[in-house]
Design a protein that fits this description.
- The complex is a heterodimer of chains A (741) and B (787).
- With 741 residues, chain A is of the alpha+beta class.
- Chain A contains 20 helices and 16 strands.
- In chain A, helix 10 runs antiparallel to helix 11 and helix 15 crosses helix 16.
- In chain B, strands 1-4-5-8-9-12 form a 6-stranded antiparallel β-barrel. In chain B, strands 2, 3, 6, 7, 10 and 11 form a 6-stranded antiparallel sheet that branches.
- The chains are: A alpha+beta (741), B alpha+beta (787).
Chain lengths: 741, 787
């Protein structure tokens, strides 16, 4: 508003009230970021080096390493088409599956234990090499993309080479890109997103090339979301940058409002709709590939089950529930079965345990719904007598011959005054006793009910009800609190006086009564088409639930605050101890970062944060626009983006309840390396010798750290003394005695 | 014209629209012109030194203005505007708040707590509560003034006895709430609202039913809302002084002091006051930031220049008034708290041993002055949750599955431990062993008196703090030799008694009360410590005990001292022990941490239905109310719920405000509108809209992320800021946008009718319902209201 246009800093233009920053990239910037012959040569160099480093001795060890065991198990499920549940979306698993078909695997291999040999079956060896190759190629791709990202964020070629070199030799990234895991493809798609963003910033909006870059971003987002749900943070990052950019463009009076709104619409479509389409189509393929019942089918709703081929029998079940019906009862919140087994509580009453169980079929999930008085076996099965809302019933556990029972003692984990333990007790001779009686209170009906009838009569899958204990007036409920080891970690079932409603709801899934099972006069359970979106919705609810129930304490889990300091790695594989394979070299795969890169990045993050803070304060000054060159503005803009990326991919982990591992830091680490390169570029442009000096020091240091730990990355032979010398922290717990002969 | 701008900000006349338009255009052209014209004003206000003079100033300005706009207001109207209108509204507020204040003769809602806490001050009995003391001190004062003898226990639902003048106490408390009405009126005037909007604001505040209902009882909320409103009022005053460039005058300094006083008070009533403090703090940062830009910018840039001296003075005056004064008020409240409560009471269990010894009639069993093997002791942590170590017959559901070890804030026999020798020493002579004194570096074992198990640690990770080891109670004295049970004593220091006969105690021995020591596990080398976290429900929310490695010997969470000591074999001291004096600072910090810890421990169980508590999303839409007392036919029943029109309209206004702000931002960025820092256009938007919105956000958002149990009345301060936003919406969308005069009048009049009407319809909920509750079922506007 004040300064004359002649004195405006570069990039600014005079406006109506005040000058504004022009978002059109300056010719100088465009010229600096043009890809030259020299860059192509560099890319070739990186390709060669990258392939060498990532593919070196890819077959070592030819045994199952760490989470490869999970991936392998999932691939087997795909082979047999058995439904399973995993916390990660299916894209990479599908790719691995297709690759393994391509390489003639027959789906026969037991994935029992980390360290097992891959080639047990000579004819149909598990094609672990091609699968690892895919992961490695993603790693190489990431290195190349890093070069381009840095070039497009105004780094000179040598700095871009340096930055991508760091990605190339970062120990943890190398380790992960050699194994059949999800992280290497994930980092690749993350790099794709960043590449697209950096590219699009240099192009004029709404041009053809600009749209291409946007599609790259959308694709990257879609792919990364289909690999790991952490990609939500990438979405968030992308969203914040988009809003910030749109805000700047809004201030650019050279862009008409119409063009501006058009940009919003195209970005909305490409950044949200496009990735979601990719995501959903991956899931469609996933559902198509798994038509049969499998390990994970237990916690599916009956409606979902009805879409799997193995569950035809569900459609044959009668819908009316009668006294004497054999039923399975499911908990609405967790979709798990009311379960009892022949083990007793080690607390409270010491009677037989009652819990929730997530797997089926299991004889221990079956209950017979009976009248409240003494009952002779088989009598109720002779006639059909429906159960109505408000009826008082007893639940007979078929396998152990005991009745569901509530004691006035505190449950094992949630020891509240108002909570009672639920157990199984007594036998057929039990006379009438209010502590064995439950009142059926129907609360709601599910979407497949055709009329209001399920609210009055108990109908399988349709009536949603509570079990109110007659003796103490408490309501039977369950939650995702697990029983201790003696309860096999199953969910606790308890009876709470005046509970909140959501966790007290149950419904009947399987239902069978000899009188009506084969009588066509009685209606069967109706299963309307279960739409794709309902399936996706249900699946994601269970994925979130599984994710949050990963609270057990793994030996190598760690806290987020320790990650940037590399206090401890993760042992992925070791040829040691009792399982030592004499005929093979002693080896370890120990997941650990590159000390030099991690620590330098930490310092740079802190420095950049301070610099950005001061920079922002300076730029908020309404009376004066600081004079700075295009290179400096670009540096700060890029630093902000990368720092934000680091923060968004790191901070949320502090709020996660589940157990976490060092490899969750990889996406944040990738951003911090980009930030590091930006910093070097800035130093070179400001203070040439210091900049180059820093670059050489970091380069040499990180190469040394890489070289020093080669045996841990590649599983090579080592000597005990060298190994011991490399234990820079006493908390690094790789066992050096492995290398003793 | 510039003159009139300032009048309009202070007087809020309806001629505002025209005058501000001209001002804004002139400001943007000549930023200096405005300053030059500001000078005479500054001088005139320099002369006026007291707060009362300010009113005269307003009157004089108003009279000037009325010459400019003779058609709108006659000079006599200032009498109405400044005195009669607020007086009328205050009387109205007093009527609805005081009406039938003695209707319920029983202890209602949290009167059971706060009335009782007040009585503790009369009885001088030490108690512990999660709230800072000021509010309860005021309640105590009201009880003192009403000649209450402190004998009534304020049991929930009990009928007040004859001699307890509860009406006086309630009225005393109610006055704070009534005073919000005139404050809000003058707030509206100072915000630059028109009379119409000021009335809207004041009526909303008056008939807002949460504050109205709560004001009828002995609670902290009225006091809290009064100081919150006062703080905000001060902020507005400061803002007006700042834009007049007048904040370094005597008047400015007085207002700064009042602000500091007010935020000090609000924080000393409830910690929620911190939110309004943050709001004031942010505004001050904003202001100082602008001033530093002014300081550093070149004179050519057009920024009004300030000198470095002025700049430093701004800093110093704000640090003194807004940081030091509130802090000292807060400290002072605790000083009174400690001074008044000099007798032992219900809060004994959770305070440090030294503080307990300073209380009259404390329950410490003070035995012989040195500890020997075989002594029965209780052990108090010196960490941030200074409770007694405790064990009971419940096991850890995870980890070792052995008996739990916790810290506990109440005294019971499960806190008693026996000191045993280490395994190797197996003295045949019990008596001799009982006389062997425990020295620095000795190894002891701690046997739980009731269950006979020994305190031990092992490599299981602790249930809450995963990176430390779990501590459990297991086995018995006859056990195999297990180093896990054995603890090495490391004496840290010894606090010397003021009495000469106890000053020569051997510092190598352990003396109850005065020796501070650490316990190092013989096997793992970690130290017995507390973390300040509490166990989940299976551990009854008691404090966590761990064994941890620590770098600093000064880490107080690993320090312990012996509180009770019983040993018949040793000689008692000849005269009564005189304990060292507790240190105020230490006790102050510990008490505050203890408040924080027990605040965090108020975590609800998601499975248990709690009729009283509610969730954050229910408040702005009035999803649920709160039954304040039992619901029997004979009871006078109160149902806490907001005024539907006010609450719903203010919630809607929050949304409208966001849209309004987005439109403004869009127009600014596109340079269709311009905001200038010193221009009324911006400053009015800032102070009428943005600041209250941030205030609402700060008073609301923390409850979304907070894990503790929440009640409807937690929304009260946020509701106040929401009302300010709704007034802003009325002002900027009705008053300024609707050109047609009578339509404008109509809208305002109907809003007044709706405010009062919806109150009138639901008045029984606030005034108390007599008779069976089904008589009042027509008041159930939403099916979720539990009337």
């Amino acid at each position: 508003m004040i300064e004359k246009s002649s004195k405006l800093p570069p990039g600014y233009k005079p406006g109506i009230f005040r000058s504004f920053f022009s978002t059109t990239p300056s010719p100088q910037l465009l010229q600096q970021t043009t890809i030259t012959k020299y860059d192509r040569a560099n890319l070739c160099l990186l390709l060669t080096l990258g392939s060498a480093i990532r593919l070196y001795k890819l077959w070592l060890p030819s045994r199952i390493v760490f989470d490869e065991i999970h991936l392998g198990t999932f691939l087997k499920f795909y082979f047999h088409g058995e439904f399973f549940l995993d916390v990660h979306p299916p894209l990479v698993k599908l790719i691995y599956y297709w690759l393994s078909i391509l390489f003639h695997w027959n789906g026969q291999m037991e994935f029992n234990r980390i360290g097992e040999l891959y080639n047990q079956d000579i004819d149909h060896e598990f094609p672990y090499l091609p699968l690892r190759l895919f992961s490695s190629l993603c790693g190489v791709g990431t290195v190349l993309l890093t070069y381009l990202i840095l070039r497009y964020s105004n780094c000179r070629s040598i700095v871009a080479l340096f930055g991508s070199g760091l990605v190339l030799i970062e120990n943890s990234l190398v380790t992960h890109s050699r194994l059949i895991l999800l992280d290497s493809p994930f980092i690749f798609s993350l790099a794709l997103v960043i590449y697209g963003i950096k590219r699009s910033q240099l192009q004029s909006p709404l041009s053809k090339a600009w749209f291409k870059s946007l599609i790259v971003i959308g694709m990257g987002l879609g792919l990364s979301l289909s690999i790991k749900l952490v990609a939500i943070f990438t979405f968030l990052w992308c969203g914040i940058l988009t809003v910030q950019q749109l805000w700047q463009q809004l201030g650019d009076l050279e862009i008409s409002t119409k063009k501006w709104s058009f940009q919003i619409i195209s970005k909305l479509v490409i950044f949200i709709v496009f990735p979601l389409v990719i995501y959903c189509s991956i899931f469609t393929v996933h559902f198509e590939a798994l038509p049969f019942s499998g390990e994970g089918a237990g916690i599916l709703s009956p409606f979902f089950k009805s879409s799997l081929t193995d569950f035809e029998y569900l459609k044959q079940m009668p819908v009316d529930v009668s006294y004497g019906s054999t039923i399975t009862i499911k908990h609405v919140g967790t979709e798990a079965y009311l379960h009892s087994h022949n083990f007793t509580y080690l607390s409270g009453s010491g009677e037989q345990q009652v819990s929730l169980y997530e797997f089926m079929p299991d004889i221990n999930n079956e209950w017979i719904i009976e009248i409240k008085n003494k009952n002779v076996e088989g009598k109720l099965q002779k006639q059909f007598k429906p159960i109505k809302d408000g009826d008082t019933v007893r639940l007979f556990h078929k396998a152990t011959g005991r009745y569901l029972h509530v004691n006035d003692v505190r449950p094992p984990v949630s020891e509240h005054d108002y909570a009672n333990e639920v157990s199984c007790n007594s036998d057929r001779n039990q006379l009438g006793d209010v502590n064995y009686e439950f009142k059926i209170r129907i609360i709601d009906r599910s979407f497949n009910s055709e009329n209001e009838l399920p609210l009055r009569k108990l109908k399988a899958t349709q009536s949603i009800f509570q079990l109110v204990h007659v003796g103490t007036k408490c309501v039977v409920m369950s939650h995702i609190t697990r029983l201790p080891e003696w309860g096999f970690g199953q969910y606790e079932v308890l009876c709470v006086d005046e509970p909140t409603i959501p966790n007290t709801l149950w419904y009947i899934e399987e239902n069978s009564h000899p009188k009506i099972d084969n009588d066509e006069n009685y209606p069967r359970i109706a299963f309307p088409q279960y739409s794709f979106f309902r399936k996706i919705w249900e699946l994601h609810k269970s994925m979130i639930r599984i994710n949050s129930s990963f609270t057990s304490h793994h030996r190598y889990s760690s806290k987020p605050e320790t990650w940037p300091w590399l206090l401890r790695g993760v042992n992925y594989f070791s040829n040691e101890g009792t399982t030592k394979y004499i005929d093979e070299n002693p080896s370890h795969i120990y997941f650990l970062g590159n000390m030099m890169i991690y620590y330098t990045a930490n310092i740079i993050i802190l420095l950049t944060f301070t610099k950005l803070f001061i920079y922002t304060i300076k730029h908020l000054n309404p009376f004066h626009i600081p004079f700075e060159t295009i290179n400096v503005s670009t540096y700060y803009a890029n630093s902000f983006e990368f720092l934000l990326g680091w923060f968004i991919h790191y901070a949320p982990f502090f709020y996660m309840e589940r157990e976490l591992f060092l490899h969750h830091y990889l996406p944040a680490l990738y951003f911090s390396i980009l930030l590091l390169a930006q910093f070097i570029e800035y130093q070179i442009s400001k203070r040439k010798y210091i900049g180059y000096g820093l670059m050489i020091i970091i380069g040499v240091g990180s190469s040394y750290c890489f070289y020093q730990f080669l045996p841990l990355i590649y599983g090579l032979d080592w000597s005990v003394s060298e190994c011991n010398q490399s234990k820079w922290f006493s908390s690094w717990d790789f066992d050096c005695m492995t290398y003793a002969n | 014209m510039n003159e009139s701008k300032y009048h309009s900000t202070t007087n809020g006349l309806s001629s505002f629209t025209e005058s501000s338009k001209t001002t804004s255009s002139s400001t943007s052209d000549h930023p200096f012109a405005q300053l030059k014209q500001r000078k005479p004003l500054k001088q005139s206000s320099d002369l006026s030194s007291s707060i009362n003079d300010e009113l005269d100033e307003i009157i004089s300005k108003t009279s000037e203005l009325s010459i400019n706009n003779p058609s709108k207001w006659s000079s006599s109207s200032s009498l109405f505007i400044n005195y009669l209108n607020p007086l009328f509204l205050t009387i109205l507020s007093a009527i609805v708040r005081l009406y039938d204040i003695n209707k319920s003769k029983a202890v209602t809602w949290d009167e059971a707590h706060f009335g009782k806490f007040g009585a503790y001050y009369l009885n001088h009995e030490f108690y512990f509560d999660v709230h800072p003391p000021l509010g309860k001190l005021l309640i105590g004062l009201s009880e003192y003034l009403s000649n209450f003898n402190g004998e009534f226990a304020f049991d929930s639902g009990a009928v007040y006895p004859e001699e307890c003048d509860f009406v006086f106490m309630r009225v005393f408390n109610c006055i704070f709430s009534i005073l919000c009405t005139p404050l809000s009126y003058y707030l509206g005037i100072n915000l630059g609202f028109s009379q119409w909007t000021t009335w809207f604001l004041t009526l909303s505040v008056t008939f807002e039913m949460i504050s109205l209902t709560l004001s009828k009882f002995i609670l902290l909320d009225s006091i809290l809302i009064f100081f919150t409103v006062l703080s905000y009022f001060c902020l507005i005053k400061l803002h007006n002084l700042i834009i007049q460039n007048n904040s370094l005058s005597l008047k400015g300094f007085i207002w700064l002091i009042v602000t500091g006083f007010s935020i000090g008070c609000v924080c000393s009533v409830k910690w929620v006051g911190l939110f309004v403090t943050v709001l004031v703090g942010l505004y001050i940062i904003y202001d100082l930031l602008i001033k530093s830009y002014q300081l550093t910018s070149k004179s050519t840039s057009g920024a009004p220049k300030i000198s470095i001296m002025t700049y430093i003075l701004h800093w110093i005056s704000r640090i003194i008034t807004l940081i030091l004064i509130p802090f000292f008020i807060y400290l002072f409240c605790f000083k009174i708290h400690f001074t008044v409560l000099n007798r032992s009471g219900t809060g004994d269990g959770s305070i440090s041993t030294l503080l307990q010894t300073s209380l009259e009639g404390n329950s410490i069993r003070s035995g012989p002055r040195s500890i020997s093997y075989g002594s029965l002791i209780t052990l108090r942590s010196q960490g941030l949750s200074p409770n007694l170590i405790h064990s009971h017959e419940h096991i850890y559901p995870e980890g070792s599955h052995q008996q739990q070890v916790t810290t506990y804030g109440f005294k019971d026999e499960n806190n008693d431990f026996l000191i045993d020798t280490e395994q190797e020493i197996n003295s045949s002579n019990d008596d001799e062993q009982y006389r062997t004194l425990v020295k620095d570096g000795d190894v002891i074992r701690l046997t739980h008196e009731v269950t006979g198990c020994l305190i031990r640690t092992h490599t299981f990770h602790a249930p809450v703090s995963n990176n430390h080891f779990e501590v459990s109670c297991f086995g018995d004295v006859e056990n195999e030799n297990e180093f896990k049970d054995e603890w090495i004593i490391e004496i840290q220091n010894h606090e010397v008694s003021p009495s000469p006969s106890f000053q020569n105690e051997n510092a190598d021995e352990i003396h109850p009360i005065s020796t501070n020591f650490r316990l190092k596990n013989k096997q793992l080398g970690c130290y017995l410590a507390t973390t300040g976290y509490s166990y989940p429900s299976w551990g009854f929310q008691q404090g966590e005990v761990v064994c941890k490695y620590t770098f600093l010997s000064k880490d107080k969470s690993t320090w312990w001292n012996i509180e009770d000591h019983v040993n018949n074999k040793l000689e008692m001291p000849a005269e009564a022990y005189v304990p060292p004096k507790p240190k105020f600072w230490k006790e102050f910090i510990l008490l505050n941490y203890g408040m924080m810890a027990s605040n965090n421990a108020l975590v609800p169980d998601p499975d248990k239905f709690d009729r009283l508590s509610s969730e954050w999303w229910e408040w702005p839409i009035l999803h649920t109310g709160l039954r304040m007392c039992s619901w029997l036919t004979d009871d006078v029943k109160f149902f806490l719920i907001g005024n539907p029109f006010i609450t719903w309209f203010s919630t809607l206004s929050l949304g409208l405000f966001l849209i309004y702000a987005l439109v403004k931002a869009f127009r600014y960025q596109r340079q269709l509108d311009n905001f200038d820092l010193f221009d009324s256009n911006w400053n009015l938007f800032l102070i009428q809209g943005i600041v209250p919105f941030i205030g609402w956000f700060f008073h609301y958002f923390p409850f979304i992320v907070m894990g503790r149990v929440k009640y409807l009345h937690h929304y009260l301060p946020a509701q106040y800021f929401a009302i300010l936003i709704s007034s802003f919406i009325m002002e900027s969308l009705i008053q300024k946008k609707i050109k047609y005069k009578y339509l404008r009048y109509f809208v305002y009049a109907s809003s007044y009718i709706l405010i009062i009407g919806s109150f009138w319809y639901l008045k029984d909920l606030a005034f108390g319902m007599e008779g069976p509750s089904n008589q009042f079922s027509h008041l159930k506007l939403l099916p979720t209201w539990y009337i």
